[in-house]
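Lab manual, section 2.4: Encoding a predicted structure.

Procedure: take the sequence of the chain (265 residues), apply the prediction step described in section 2.3, and record the output as structure tokens. A sample record is shown.
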Amino acid sequence: MRKLINLSLFLLLGFSSVVPAMDLTDANEIVAKANLAAYYSGADGRSEARMLIRDAQGREQKRQFTILRRDREEGGEQDFLVVFSRPADVRNTVFLVAKKPGSDDDRWLYLPGLDLVKRISAGDKRTSFVGSHYFYEDVSGRGTEEDTHSLLETSGTHYIVDNTPLDSSSVEFSRYQVWINKQTFLPEKIEYQDENGELYRRVEVLESQEIQGYPTVTKSQVSDLRSGGATTLEFRFQKYDLGMEESVFTERSLRKPPREWLKRN
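Recorded output:
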């Protein structure tokens, strides 16, 4: 009887369920999980974003846009449509991405003032996204196959992974480190080094929460550590698994964005 009582207390106190999760040791596995958490929540998704761009002198610009995303396959090909609504000088500017892991993404930018559809070349993916400190590549994500990955450190809360580009001529950095949350697998900080090993760029998550069961970034920031400028992005009204059709993400949507999906429901 005493043994049964002791066992009951053991179960009630929860000791039998406190089994520490084994830390992962394979950097490629960690990076793959982080990629899924950051870019593949749900089969599709919608979010409204407010962007604040600050230069080194403290001058500010604001942008507001809606992001639509649809997965063709989990961890694989995706489509993104970004439609700007504010301010007036960028209103109806549209950015379309057909993400193709393992090869160059197809990226287009529609400039309504010129009624011009511009193809963004692979060499331009690490240039400024509409005048901000974010790059075009930051919107849809960098392909995990473009870098080699090694696990630098495992703390109580994060995996720290070092990443080195396979083609150093295609990027402006020599390497970057990523802090990946061990519970959610969201990448919460990325620091980039130049060819001299100097830290020059930082991307960090400022706020996150669980939405429809998915860990979700709700506020992030990119800092230019050389100039002192930074861009903050706040995400609102995020929803997943909406059932968006493939037709939403065609070149036709550059000039005629799908208003039914841009409206807040």
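Check your result against the sample. The longest helix spans residues 27-39.
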